[in-house]
Amino acid sequence: MRNILDDFLVKKGDTGYYCKYGDFYIDAMLPVERNIISHAHGDHATAGHRRMYATLPTFAFMKNKYPKMTDASQHVVSYGDPLQFGDVRVTLFPAGHMLGSAQILMEFEDVRYLYTGDYKLQNDITCEPIEVRKADVLITESTFANPAVKHPDFREEILKLKDRQSNIMLGCYVLGKAQRLTALINTYLPEREVLVHHKMYPVHRLYDQLGRCRLKYTLYNRKAMKDAPGNKIYLVPPLTFNSYFRAKNVLRAFASGWERLQRQNDITLYISDHVDWDDLLRFINDVQPQQVWTIHGDGKALQHHFAGELIVRDILQAG
């Protein structure tokens, strides 16, 4: 049994996850000296840190959101290339969540600690597929760590939009989800024309420059949406989607793993970029950890499932 340090990575108030053994943060929300960023979503990536470490796509998406972010603070990290912070060796590997997303493997005194960030096991042609690395401690998101949550096949879900005799307003998040949906529509519904909201357009352009496939889409304009034939799918951010709750002559759908976001829509569309219960168990089995520390959700169901078999607990809060 290796000497696992319970306080190797801790949650430090509202600032973020801190490793005192290497003196760095992961996904810090407040400005810090050194911050490793798993991916570019706003609940993981903020600007203002003195030194930031992330993949090239992550910085590109952050630059789009934070145009005043200084290049001097950015240290681009390639997958598989190790960093050294004191005696802690840090390596980034693909997480499969979105383009540029990374798991963060930390090695210290022959113990391997793996921080997942957000991740998924489903195939997604718009981003790097997840890579599995063995670890002694798995520090995993638990967004959908509930046995009742089992996401359907994404191919079956996107085909729900087929043969609908109407244009469709499809709500989704601007970064990652919108580009994945565009690729799915391009692949499985080629007869449908994708229109994207003006906030999504520059992110789509970045995916075209940095991504793994070429997306087919057009910037939204009112005339195109009204013109026949009714074969348009208009991708809009959540706030826009909610503001058009009485929109006429369109079918409404919202792509998410959350049941609450499917209510009162014309079409349910359970497409998630997080692991569900079965994939979480599969990933734990593949990583083969001695302990599992949970973040970003509720780990109680996981603790109950592995009771007497595997140590599962929430990450410690810093004193």
TrEMBL record:
Pfam families: RMMBL. Signal peptide: none annotated. Residues 271-305 form the Zn-dependent metallo-hydrolase RNA specificity domain. It comes from the Bacteria. InterPro entries: MBL, RibonucZ/Hydroxyglut_hydro, RMMBL. GO terms for molecular function: RNA endonuclease activity. PANTHER family: BLL1145 PROTEIN (PTHR11203:SF49), CLEAVAGE AND POLYADENYLATION SPECIFICITY FACTOR FAMILY MEMBER (PTHR11203). This is Putative mRNA 3-end processing factor.
